[in-house]
C-alpha cells in the first residue's frame, strides 16, 4: 500500500497529467480554443526545459553542487503548469470565483511538489525551480484567458473523461518508468555507458536516491 506522500506524489506523475490535460483540451468549448494553444505551448516548453535539465546532468554532469541541483523536478513543474489551469477550466461557467479555483489548483500543485521532499526524490532547489517555472506558465495562460472573459463551461462528460483518463492510464502504463527512459536517452545522447547520479554531484561514494 502506498504511503500518504506516495499517493499525493502520484497525482503529479506525467502519466496522469498528460492524459488529463489532453482529454480536457480535446473537448474544450470553442471560446477556450485560444487558451488551448497558449496552454499547449507552455506545457510543451515547461516539459522541454525540465527534460533538458535532467539530460544535461545525467548525460554530461551539468549540475549545481552548492544548490544540490541535478535537474528540475518534473512533478513540481508539470503539476503547477497543469492543475491551476485545469481547475480554472472545470469551474469556468459554473462558478464566478475562477481565481479561487485556480488557487486551489495551485495549492494541489504545491502539495505535490512538497511530497517529493519526504520521498527524497528531489532537493529543495529542484522543487522550487520547478514550481516557479510551472506557476509562471499557468499565470501567463490564465491572465490572457481572464482578460478575454471566456466563461463557457467545459461539459461534464468531458470533465469525467479527463479524470477517468488520469486515473486509468497510469495503471495501464505501470511498467513504464519515465525516469529510466530519461536516463537511457541521456546515455545515448552523451555516449556514456552510465548516467551521472546525484552522488556524482556531491562527490559521495554511496549513491543517494535518484531523481524521478
TrEMBL record:
Domain Phosphatidic acid phosphatase type 2/haloperoxidase: 72-148
Protein name: Phosphatase PAP2 family protein
Keyword Membrane in annotation: yes
Alphabetically ordered keywords of this record: Membrane, Transmembrane, Transmembrane helix
Residue segments, region Disordered: 193-212
Record-linked Pfam families: PAP2 (PF01569)
Species name: Stenotrophomonas lactitubi
InterPro entries: PAP2/HPO (IPR000326), PAP2/HPO_sf (IPR036938)
Amino acid at each position: 500500500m502506498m504511503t500518504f506522500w506516495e499517493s499525493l506524489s502520484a497525482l503529479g506523475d506525467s502519466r496522469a497529467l498528460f492524459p488529463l490535460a489532453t482529454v480536457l483540451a480535446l473537448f474544450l468549448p470553442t471560446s477556450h480554443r485560444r487558451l488551448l494553444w497558449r496552454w499547449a505551448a507552455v506545457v510543451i516548453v515547461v516539459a522541454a526545459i525540465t527534460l533538458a535539465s535532467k539530460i544535461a546532468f545525467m548525460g554530461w554532469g551539468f549540475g549545481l553542487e552548492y544548490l544540490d541541483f541535478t535537474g528540475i523536478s518534473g512533478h513540481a513543474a508539470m503539476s503547477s503548469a497543469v492543475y491551476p489551469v485545469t481547475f480554472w477550466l472545470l469551474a469556468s461557467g459554473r462558478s464566478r470565483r475562477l481565481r479561487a479555483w485556480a488557487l486551489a489548483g495551485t495549492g494541489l500543485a504545491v502539495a505535490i511538489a512538497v511530497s517529493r521532499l519526504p520521498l527524497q526524490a528531489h532537493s529543495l532547489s529542484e522543487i522550487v525551480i520547478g514550481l516557479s517555472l510551472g506557476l509562471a506558465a499557468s499565470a501567463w495562460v490564465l491572465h490572457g484567458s481572464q482578460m478575454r472573459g471566456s466563461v463557457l463551461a467545459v461539459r461534464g462528460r468531458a470533465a469525467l473523461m479527463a479524470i477517468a483518463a488520469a486515473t486509468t492510464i497510469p495503471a495501464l502504463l505501470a511498467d513504464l518508468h519515465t525516469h529510466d527512459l530519461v536516463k537511457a536517452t541521456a546515455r545515448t545522447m552523451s555516449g556514456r555507458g552510465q548516467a551521472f547520479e546525484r552522488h556524482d554531484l556531491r562527490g559521495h561514494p554511496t549513491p543517494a536516491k535518484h531523481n524521478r
